[in-house]
Amino acid sequence: MMSSSFNIFRVGISVVIMCIFYKSAVDSLSELSPQKYFSTLQPGKASLAYFCQADSPRTSIFLEELNEAITPLQDYGISVAKVNCVKEETSRYCGKEEDLMKAYLFSALLFNEVKYITTLEDLQNIENALKGKANIAFSYVRAIGTPEHRAVMEAAFVYGTTYQFVLTTETALLESIGNEDIENAHLYFFHCKQVLDLTLQCRRTLMEQPLTTLNIHQFIKTMEAPLLTEVTEDPQQVSTVHLQLGLPLVFIVSQQATYEADRRTAEWVAWRLLGKAGVLLLLRDSLEVDIPQHSNVIFRRAEEGVPVEFLVLDDIDSLISHVESNVHIEEIQEDEDEDTKSPNMGQAVSMAFLQSYIDLAIKLKGTSTMLLTRVNCADWSDLCTKQNVTEFPVVKMYKEGKNPVSYVGMLGTEDLLKFIQLSRISCPVNITSVQEAEEYLSGELYKDLISYSSVSVLGLFSPNMTTAKEDFTEAGNYLKGYAITGIYSEEDVLILSDKYAATLPALLLSRHKEGKIESIPLANSHAQDIIQIITNALLETFPEITVENLPIYLRLQKPLLILFSDGSINPQYKKAILMLVKEKHLDSLTPCWLNLKNTPVGRGILQSYFDTMPPLPLLVVVNLHSGGQVFAFPSDQAITEQNLLLWLKKLEAGLENHITILPAQEWKPPLPAYDFLSMMDAAASQHPTRKDPECTKEMDVQENDKKQHEDKSAIIKEPIETLRIKHWNRSNWFKEGEKSFRHDNKEL
To answer: How far does Cα 685 stand from its chain's mean position?
Structure first.
C-alpha cells in the first residue's frame, strides 16, 4: 500500500490541502470547483482548501481533526473550503495518486515541504532518502491546530529551507520510536546529513522543553552549533551561542598526553548534552590561566558574573547528572519569577517580525533604490553594540551624510512601508511659494504618498516667528516617516492665512479623503504640543477597529462607541454617526466600527456581552476605564442621527440599563518583555526632540543601485489573541480616564 505524505509548499498566500477522505467528514464545508476556488482568493487573506479526488479510509482520522480545527481557523481569519477535482481537471493540486494526501501552503517567498506521515515505514523512507543530504525535524502533536502544531509550523517557515520538517499525529508512530508519552507534543532532531552509510540509523536528539516557538528556535540553534569546540582561552572569557541562548558551558580539561582519549570523551558528553549545554575541549597545556591540578571539568553557568566551577568527576553519568540538575534548577527559578525578563524574548519577537520585513522587501522590489538588509546581532555583536542596539528587533534607516533614523512604530508590513515611503521627503518640506503651497494642500505635490497618509500638515508662520518655526521644525523632524509636514514662512504668508481663516502661527490640516482643509492656531504651542496635535489629526474620524490599530484608539482614553457589522457598514449608518461627529455630539467618545469578517474575534466579544450571538448590525457603548457596564442601542430602533442622539442623552442621564458588567480583570502582557506599548513610550521619551541634520526635497532615502537581498526564509505570524476591552461606569463615562492605557487595561 502506498505510503501517504503531507507536503506543504509555500508559494502564495493561501493554504491548499490536497487530500483523499470520506465525504461525511466535510459535509459542513462549502464545495467549489478549482476554478471557482482560485477566483475567490483575496490578497492578504489566508485560505485552507481540501482538494478531493477519491475516497480513502487512511485519511479519515486526519480529516476529522482538520474538521474540528475549522472554527478556530476561521476565528483567525482563515477561510476553509472543499474543492472537488473532476477527472478533466489539470490543476497540479488535483493529484493523480489515489492514496496520496498532500497539502500546499502558499506564501509569497518560501518554497518548502512539510510532510505528514502516519506510519514508521513513512518515517524510515524519509530518513533513508535524506541520509548524507539533510537533517530532519520530526514532531508529534496531538492534533492539527493546537498551539504546539502552530509553533512547529512557524518554525518550518523559518528553518524549512534548511531542514526537512516531518509531522505526525499518530500515537502508534511515536511509541514505535520509543516514546510512550503520548499526552504531550514532542520534537526530535534527526542528524542524517552526516550519515554516509545507508545501513546506519540517524542519531536522534529529543527536545525536552515544551513545544513553543521560542523553545523550538532555541533548540534548533543548539543543533546548528558545533558539536565540540576546542579552546585555549580563559573559560570565563569564552562566548558561544549557548550562552546567548541561556545555556551553560561544560569544559572538558585535556592535556597533550591524553588528548585523543579526552576528545573522544568530550564528543560523547557533547552528544549526551546536546540541546542542554555547550561542550568545549580545553587544552590545559596552552592555557595561561591556572586550573586546579585535580580538576578535569569546568562548569560555567549562563548568568553573567557567576564564577566558574572547577569539578572533579569520575564518570560521564556524574557529569551529565550535574549539568541536568543545575539546568533544571535554573528553569524552575525562571518559571517562579514572573517579573524575570526572558533573555531570549527578543529572538522570539524577531522571528515573528521577520515575515513582515520579508513581505516589505517584496513590495519594494523594483520600485525603490533603498537597500534592505538584516543583521543577526548574535553573530555581529560588535556591530550592533556600535549602533547602540540594545533591544530586538530594531529597524534603522541610514542615509549618507545623515544620522540614522530609528523606526519605533508597529512591526507590520504596511506600517513599515508607510514609514519608508513617507521618509522619502523632507521633515518638514520647505514650501517656497503660494502656488506650491496650494499644490501641497491639494495633494498634487506628493500625490504618490497620499495613500500612506491622507492628511497633509502645513505650518504657516511670519518670517520673524523664529521660535515658533523652530518648534514646528522640531515636531516635523520627530514625525518623519509618520506624517507629511510642510512649512511656509514667506512674506506673502497672509494670502494663505486669510484664505483659510488662520491666525498665525497656525497649522493647516488638509484631509484629502474628505476634501477639506481646517486650521488650528499654534500660539504658545511647543514642539510636544504640535506633535500631539498632528498625531491626533492623523487618526480617522470613524475608523474600522482591528487588532493592530485598537491600542492607538484606546490611548485616547475615551469610551468606545462601537458599531459591530458582518461586513461593510450601511452608508446611512456611517452618515448618521459622522453627522453627530461633525456637530460635536461625540467629542467625549471614540466612534468606530468592527467588521466581523475582517476581525472574527469580534464574535467572541459579542457573545461575552449577550451569551448568544445577537443580530447584526449592533451598536454598543463601552467605557474602558472603570465600572465595566456595557450598553446596547435598542435593536428595534433604526440607527439614525436622531435616535442615536436621544439614546446617548439617556445614557448620560442614567436612564438606560446596562446589558452586562464584565469582570474587572486586568489585561497585562504575559511577560514584561511583551509590554510593547511601554517600550514604545520609553523610546519616545528618550528621543523627544530628535533632529535630523537638514531637510531637503529628496525623494530617495539612499541612492543605491544594489539589488535587494531576497531572503528565502519566512514565518507564519503569531495568531491574534482574543480582543479584550476594559469596562466603565455609567456615572463617569463622559470623563477621560486619569490612568494611562498601559496601567488600566481590563478585559474588553
So the answer is: 24
pLDDT over 90 percentage in the chain: 30
Say how many CA atoms lie within 13 Å of 152 toward its Cβ.
Answer: 33
Alpha carbon dihedral 45, 66, 71, 723, in 10-degree steps, equals: -70
Q: Which three cell numbers stand for residue 637?
A: 430602533
Interior CA angle at 658 toward 653 and 664, to 5°? 115
Cα separations (Å) of 65 from 58, 159, 198, 407, 496?
Answer: 13, 26, 35, 42, 66
CA-CA distance, 383 to 386, in Å (whole number)? 5
Task: Say if residue 380's pLDDT is above 70.
Answer: yes
Please list, residue by residue across 397-429, b when 16 or more beta carbons sit within 10 angstroms of its beta carbon and e when fewer do.
bebeeeeebbbbebbbbebbbbbbbbbbbbbbb
pLDDT higher than threshold 70 for residue 106: no
The mean pLDDT value of the chain amounts to: 76
Q: Is the peptide bond before 559 cis (omega within 30 degrees of 0)?
A: no
Q: Look at 126-130, 163-167, 239-243, 467-471 and tell me which has the smallest mean pLDDT.
A: 239-243
Cα(84)–Cα(52) distance, integer angstroms: 5
**What Cα–Cα distance (Å) separates residue 688 from each residue in 405, 409, 505, 528?**
13, 15, 22, 8
Cell numbers for 119: 506510519
* pLDDT band at residue 270 under the 50/70/90 scheme: very high
- Return phi, psi of residue 516, to 5°: -135, 155
Residues 133-145, mean pLDDT to the nearest whole number: 89
DSSP 541-603: SSPBP-TTTHHHHHTT---EEEEEESSSPPHHHHHHHHHHHHTTTTTTSEEEEEETTT-TTHH
- Report how far apart the first and last C-alpha atoms of the chain are (Å, whole number): 53
The region of weakest confidence among 358-372, 525-539, 540-554 is 358-372
- Alpha carbons 614 and 267: distance in angstroms, whole number: 65
Q: Copy the grid coordinates of residue 5.
A: 505524505
- Per-residue model confidence (pLDDT) at position 202: 93
Taking 90 as the threshold, does the pLDDT of residue 732 lie above it?
no
- What are 352's three cell numbers? 515573528
> What is the signed CA dihedral for 314, 318, 319, 324, rounded to 10 degrees?
-170
Residue 3 vs residue 136, higher pLDDT: 136
What does the buried/exposed string (b/e) look like for 656-679 if buried means 16 or more CB atoms within 10 Å of the residue's CB?
bebeeebeeeebeeeeebbeebee
Residue 716 is classified by DSSP as P
The C-alpha atoms of residue 747 and residue 665 are separated, in whole angstroms, by: 6
Residue type, position 393, single letter: P
**Grid cell of 675 as nine digits:** 509590554
Round to whole Å and give the CA distance between 173 and 177: 7
What span, in angstroms and rounded, lies between the C-alpha atoms of 565 and 596? 6
DSSP states along 67-109:
HHTHHHHHHTTEEEEEEEPPTT---TTS-S-SS--EEEE--SS
- Look up cell 490578497; give the residue: 43
Do the bridges between strand 618-622 and strand 629-632 make them parallel or antiparallel, or are there none, so unpaired? antiparallel
> CA-to-CA distance for 116 and 113, rounded, in angstroms?
10
Measured in residues, the chain has a length of 748
Q: Is the pLDDT of residue 20 over 90?
A: no
Question: Three cell numbers at 16?
Answer: 491548499
The dihedral of CA 574, 576, 577, 580: what is its sign?
A: positive
CB atoms inside a 10 Å sphere around CB 571:
8
